[in-house]
Design goal:
The chain is an alpha+beta fold. It has three domains: 99 residues, Beta-Lactamase; 93 residues, Helix Hairpins (Orthogonal Bundle), CATH 1.10.287; 156 residues, Heat Shock Protein 90. It contains ten helices and twelve strands. Strands 2-1-5-4-3 form a five-stranded antiparallel sheet. The radius of gyration is 34 Å and the shape is elongated. It starts with a helix and ends in a 5-residue tail after the last strand.
Length: 351
Amino acid sequence: MQHTEMMALFSELSPDPVIRCDISGRILLSNESANDIFNKKILLGEYIENVFPIIKNFDIEKVIDYGLIKNFEHTVDGKHFQFVVAGVPKYNAIQIYGRDISQLKTTQQELKVALTKANASTKLKEEFLSRISHEIRSPLVSIQGYSELLKSQSDDFSPEYQSIFQSIENNSKRLYRTVELILNMSQVQTGSYESSFKEINIYNVVEKTFREFKSFAEESKLDFTFDSQVDTETSIFADEYSVSQIVVNLIDNAFKYTRKGSISVGLYKENQRVKIVIEDTGVGISEKYLNNLFQPFSQEYSGYTRPYDGTGLGLALVKSFIDLNEAKIEVDSEINRGAKFIVTFDELIKL
């Protein structure tokens, strides 16, 4: 009896509502907090279904017999409460415990509104980037096309004009890649990039990209070479677009930081793995900066007076696409001694 009285006293002093009912649903006990919810209404003797209509959906007898636990929410005068109905077979009764979750509901609503706004903002950003990239791409295609046409007729022009046509073509390609880079990074960050995994010929991907950069080597007076020691039918299972962007951005990065010397692209096989190696004789990377190498908008040389161009997104996108394809990237570099990037894919073994 003393224990029962102590438990009853604890319930009475609890800041949360506590209600006890018999097997018929008649309220045997309600503490002050429970009465306060219903504006000091005396609940003793009332049937629980009249207080919480949702309990009509519960089989009280079954809840008691099996000691089941049920949950429901109830709103009173704008306040939200969460209740737990627990069967107590020993006393042939149910105990109802409640707590005020009004603040939680308010927070959830605020988060829901914030999420809606964030999704709207993300959609707006995607639409903006999509439209602006289209608006930039269209004239760039024309510029590239006409510059290539003029270049094909360059024998009729002086070397000075030939150099101008070459510069127009290369800079339009560079701007096109920048647009692609921004759009791709946005898709990766918002989770809207759609990958398509399939068997791809890795030799064709690397060789095609190498050819696209040959005009940059000619303009920059750099020694640009491609060495492949794999079969031309060597394949990997990956997302083709993202793999091509890995190669594009690594080669582009090499050209940005190499003013003289050479850039080499290699394709090798080792223990059923395919390795793409891109090495340059550029400025290199300090040991201190290597940890930040793949961070978005990160560049070792920054500020308006930085000696090298770039958005700081290329290597961040490379790392994202490396992870997407479950590949591996290694960097070997020292200041003033160039840089070597090694990308490793699992070879697709054909049965």
